[in-house]
Design goal:
The chain has 194 residues and is of the alpha/beta class. The chain has a single domain, classed as P-loop containing nucleotide triphosphate hydrolases (Rossmann fold). Helix content is 55%, strand content 14%. Strands 2-3-1-4-5 form a five-stranded parallel beta sheet, sandwiched between helices. The radius of gyration is 16 Å and the shape is globular.
C-alpha cells in the first residue's frame, strides 16, 4: 500500500508550520493515518545544521552538504518507511527549500534540485507565497542572518520555479490560516480521490 507525500513550502513567516498543523488535524479527522515531519530534522545532521546557522559560521556549500546528509537520513528512517506503510506524510519543508535558500545564496539551484533527484518525489506541493516584507514583519525581532528582504525575494522567485514541474498549489499566504486550509483541502481532495 502506497502512502501519500505532501510537502508544504514557503519563506520563513509564510505560515507553513501553522498550515501543517491544521492539515494534520483536518486529515486525521477524515480518517487518514497522518505523520507530520519537518526539515531540518532533530537528527544528528539537522541539529548540527541548526547550530551552525544560528552561530552564523557556515558557507552555502557546507549548509547544502548538511541538508543533504540530514535529508538522506530523514528519507531512510522516516519518509520511506512511513510511505510504505500507507501513511499520509506531511513534510514542513523538503528539498525545495534547499534549492530556494541555497540557490539564493549563490549556488546553482538547478544543480541542487538535481542533487536531490534520487529522493522520493512528493505527490503534491503546497507553496505559501508571500511578499518578503510582510513575512519579515510577521517574524518581527527574529531576523536571522539569511532573512533579509532582498535575499528572501530571490528565495521566493526560485521557489515558484522549482515547484512548477510537480502537482502543486500556490496559496496567497496573506489569507487567514482557515482560508489557506480550506483552499489546500479542496486541492488535496482531488489528489487523494485519484
Amino acid at each position: 500500500m502506497k502512502g501519500f507525500f505532501l510537502v508544504v513550502e514557503g519563506i520563513d513567516g509564510a505560515g507553513k508550520t501553522t498550515l501543517c498543523e491544521l492539515l494534520k488535524n483536518s486529515l486525521r479527522s477524515r480518517g487518514y493515518d497522518v505523520l507530520l515531519t519537518r526539515e531540518p530534522t532533530e537528527g544528528k545532521y539537522g541539529k548540527e545544521l541548526k547550530r551552525r546557522i544560528t552561530e552564523g559560521k557556515i558557507t552555502p556549500e557546507e549548509e547544502l552538504e548538511l541538508f543533504l546528509k540530514d535529508r538522506e537520513e530523514h528519507v531512510k528512517k522516516v519518509l520511506e518507511p512511513s510511505l510504505r506503510s500507507g501513511k499520509l506524510v506531511i513534510s514542513d519543508r523538503y528539498y525545495f527549500s534547499s534549492c530556494a535558500y541555497q540557490g539564493a545564496r549563490g549556488l546553482d539551484y538547478q544543480k541542487i534540485c538535481q542533487a536531490n533527484s534520487s529522493f522520493p518525489s512528493p505527490d503534491f506541493v503546497i507553496l505559501l507565497d508571500i511578499d518578503p516584507s510582510v513575512a519579515l514583519r510577521r517574524k518581527k525581532a527574529r531576523e536571522e542572518h539569511f532573512e533579509e528582504e532582498v535575499y528572501l525575494k530571490k528565495v521566493r522567485e526560485i521557489y515558484i520555479k522549482v515547484v512548477k514541474p510537480f502537482p502543486h498549489l500556490i496559496i496567497d499566504a496573506r489569507r487567514s490560516p482557515e482560508e489557506a486550509l480550506s483552499e489546500a483541502l479542496k486541492a488535496l481532495d482531488k489528489c487523494l480521490k485519484k
